[in-house]
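As a warm-up, study this chain.
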Amino acid sequence: MKRIVVLTGAGMSAESGISTFRDSNGLWEQYDVMTVASIEGWYDNPDLVQQFYNDRRAQLNTVEPNEGHKIIAGLEKDFQVTVVTQNVDDLHERAGSTNIIHLHGELTKACNESKTQVYDIGTCPIRLGEKAGDGSRLRPFIVWFGEAVPLISDAAEVVSKADIIIIVGTSMQVYPAAGLIHYAKPGVPIYLVDPAEVNVPSNVKVIREKASTGLALLREMIYAK
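Now compare it with the structure written out below.
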């Protein structure tokens, strides 16, 4: 069974109504990203950061997986599929994907300050000042700017074994995730689905469509081979 690795970013969930930082009217126009998405921001104003992620978590109750998420999940019928996502939402899981690496953490989890204790909280808010089991402040289970990305080596390993690589909805500008395609075996077909103009290597076939439309086209191409 061929191995497909799907690398997804914010554009994957945009069709479901989840705001991105980069797009017009996105979160960057409402927040300084370093204030709410960096370890320094957490230390400077943990209450603001906590409320930001409480709001993001509450939003999960208002959205559903889009057709693109469902197409990716459906590929598991005929391929060994691993999703490597920069997204912190749970839409891939809810669409039915079963093998997911969350590079930047998960909204539906909380942890202690050292990330050695992790709790499933679903879409419940974390109360301001709430403590973890070790007495440290309970925080979102998110990998912020300024923190290590612990699962990047796992992601690099699955990319190195892939027979097909699909990139969906990411600008390929945020490292270390942006460097993952360099672990691909020579000659492995790489496809990028994104309506925006993205600077990618010449060996990447670009489908300039939103996630659901582009993935539907790509599914036909993969099954036709």
